Amino acid sequence: MFEKIALIGIGLIGSSLARVIRCENLAGHLAISTRSADTLKRAEQLKLGDSYTTDPVEAARNADLVIVSVPVGASGAVAEAIGPVLKKGAILTDVGSTKASVIAQMAPHVSQGVHFIPGHPLAGTEKSGPDAGFPDLFKNRWCIFTPLPDTEPAALERLSEFWRRCGANIDTMDPAHHDMTLAIVSHLPHIIAYNIVGTADDLEAVTKSEVIKYSASGFRDFTRLAASDPTMWRDVCLHNKDAILEMLARFSEDLASLQRAIRWGDGDKLFDLFTRTRAVRRSIIEAGQDIDAPDFGRQAVGSPEKKTAE
Amino acid sequence: MFEKIALIGIGLIGSSLARVIRCENLAGHLAISTRSADTLKRAEQLKLGDSYTTDPVEAARNADLVIVSVPVGASGAVAEAIGPVLKKGAILTDVGSTKASVIAQMAPHVSQGVHFIPGHPLAGTEKSGPDAGFPDLFKNRWCIFTPLPDTEPAALERLSEFWRRCGANIDTMDPAHHDMTLAIVSHLPHIIAYNIVGTADDLEAVTKSEVIKYSASGFRDFTRLAASDPTMWRDVCLHNKDAILEMLARFSEDLASLQRAIRWGDGDKLFDLFTRTRAVRRSIIEAGQDIDAPDFGRQAVGSPEKKTAE
Ligand SMILES: NC(=O)c1ccc[n+]([C@@H]2O[C@H](COP(=O)([O-])OP(=O)(O)OC[C@H]3O[C@@H](n4cnc5c(N)ncnc54)[C@H](OP(=O)(O)O)[C@@H]3O)[C@@H](O)[C@H]2O)c1
Ligand SMILES: NC(=O)c1ccc[n+]([C@@H]2O[C@H](COP(=O)([O-])OP(=O)(O)OC[C@H]3O[C@@H](n4cnc5c(N)ncnc54)[C@H](OP(=O)(O)O)[C@@H]3O)[C@@H](O)[C@H]2O)c1
């Protein structure tokens, strides 16, 4: 599809892209760039591309498509470095989990004639690094674009086609709405998960080993999200601050009200909330966004002791 | 193992017990009792026992082992009803998720010569009712007893052996410690999950259908817990109030501090917390309490579109 694709950043997302680009034969030449010599070496051992460099400028030069897959806080510096060498007609995109901040950081460094199209594939796992990627990570997942007002439809369509070939379905929305939506469906859940695991880790009355031993009773479900990459999530928190603070305020308000219902023994209120939330789960399963196997189907893959306890 | 076992309550837990009692041949006669005619009929269709009644007294009469598996708020009334007919030497136990309250409710109705041993199998799923049970629910899970000071060791050992034959491992602790431990490993996670799903359900800026569509980005992981039985969880909240309020207070305090770090852009603090929580996940996996497959192994059981997105 493209003569030369450059991947800047070769972690979970970058290396999954490298793998699907190879499988689907989407690039004549695949140039890989990452910050550290170690990660670069690992990418080379995994044979993820055709050329390897720690210099993003070298990778981006002459590329028809440049995909930046680094923590969102680093996207400005990358754009500043590669901006001057991007060729006319090239498409520059990213995969960052926040969009308004990435646009503010990158857009100033993109010269006329280069198509800058911010993107975010809603696909990932709690793992990171080049070994964590796999070619069908994006299959049947959403990739959201937040095009700028002057984005050329032809360039957007070309990038959309690229992501469709990677397996994704395309959505577009404006950056502010993206950031608000992701704040509730992704950022708040991760922050809450990090927080509850932190709270449990700090207790004196219940030992750490008890928390671990009995974790299958519910706690465990939060630890997967709380094991996600700290750098990525620090950057998400810093770069989607307003939307996250808004969601946190609502969450805390609701929690205070729930706490009050518990303190005053308001069983009807508890029952109503606990009933309403069941319906959301049902919709998610009907929408094919989760499996209905009890315990996420852990039984099917794990040994019997991997069942959910309460 | 027992001439006659009576199960009072035949939902997820009761019907799983019925199934494993049958498989392992643990009772000469298995008497089943449940409140409603509908549930009783279903239990009979499923051939879960040898006799069926909506009258707990009839089921409990002459039983050597009586297991009460009803919402914790209903355990007092059940004990009051069956207390007078329990035979000398019989063991009376329960499976309730809170222990101090269940003891306070049931103990006054147990006459001398009956062995009352409160218990809690840490095994369950988000499903309820007699169809939800399965015989190896308790396999390799913990069953915690909170024996009273005057519990006879021989009776405790007999009940322990029963649960071991059901597949469980046995732990004992005092009721207050049980309630504190479960508050953090189970009750707080469920309450937080209910709360976040409620918050998402109330938003105006992001539509319900967007929340569902993009739920695989993290939100989804909470919805399983938030789909648990409303009656059971209302009762847990009402009957483990003090420990839950204590954990909620700590959680909220920690969340306020995290919120402050986000507001003031304290990246180091965020990074430290997000790093520390990763270690907890690692310990849980090492302890065999979860599988390390990305996305809980959903990929292995679901179709490709069931992957976790971020
Ligand atoms: N993980 C997910 O679930 C997910 C899902 C959708 C979108 N995203 C977004 O995708 C992007 C990459 O995430 P990932 O999961 O692929 O991360 P990752 O596995 O941790 O890989 C990060 C990559 O970025 C490079 N990098 C890190 N810090 C850098 C810096 N300061 N300057 C330049 N390069 C830097 C790393 O290079 P070295 O290793 O050489 O240091 C590595 O190549 C992030 O913006 C994230 O928000 C993530
Ligand atoms: N679910 C879990 O994950 C889990 C795990 C460990 C322990 N537990 C504990 O196990 C107990 C039962 O939970 P479960 O999941 O088996 O519940 P379930 O599937 O909802 O079944 C509840 C059973 O209790 C009966 N019941 C409900 N309300 C009653 C009342 N007011 N008076 C008398 N009987 C009543 C029901 O009878 P009808 O259907 O005939 O009305 C049914 O037989 C609870 O104490 C819970 O805390 C649950």
Automatic annotation (TrEMBL), chains A, B:
Keywords: Amino-acid biosynthesis, Aromatic amino acid biosynthesis, NAD, Oxidoreductase, Tyrosine biosynthesis. GO terms for biological process: tyrosine biosynthetic process. The keyword Nucleotide-binding does not apply. GO terms for molecular function: NAD+ binding; prephenate dehydrogenase (NAD+) activity; prephenate dehydrogenase (NADP+) activity. It catalyses: prephenate + NAD(+) = 3-(4-hydroxyphenyl)pyruvate + CO2 + NADH. The keyword Oxidoreductase applies. Residues 3-292 form the Prephenate/arogenate dehydrogenase domain. It is an enzyme of class 1 (oxidoreductase). PROSITE patterns: PDH_ADH (PS51176). Its EC number is 1.3.1.12. It holds the Pfam family PDH_C. Pathway: Amino-acid biosynthesis; L-tyrosine biosynthesis; (4-hydroxyphenyl)pyruvate from prephenate (NAD(+) route): step 1/1. NCBIfam families: PRK07502.1 (NF005694). Belongs to the prephenate/arogenate dehydrogenase family. This is prephenate dehydrogenase. It comes from Manganibacter manganicus.
